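Problem 12. The chain below contains 102 residues. Write out its predicted structure in token notation.
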Amino acid sequence: MRVQRVRLGLTVLGVVLAATATGAAGPIGSVALTSPQWGRRLVRVPQLPLAVSALTGAVVVVVADLVARTLMPPLEFPVGALTSLVAGPYLLWLLGRSGHRQ
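Solution.
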């Protein structure tokens, strides 16, 4: 079996499935995909992964909402678009970085 080809195919499948889930649930769902990674890198507490992930996700959404409301005062910027602008490149960076850990 060609391992590199299978790995690439599974990575593409994972990205397509994540994009489909984000498209169906809304862009704010990307926070659910990235908050465990952010929490793990920020806190480094392996005993509480769910609590750290939930807290990180909540903080990200609240900060994104605050920024979205104050970015252009008479208008409100969509929170989902703001979180996608931050979470999307981060997910791509994680995918690119994970390929180098072999």
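Discussion. The radius of gyration is 16 Å. Students who got a different answer should revisit the alignment rule from Section 12.3.
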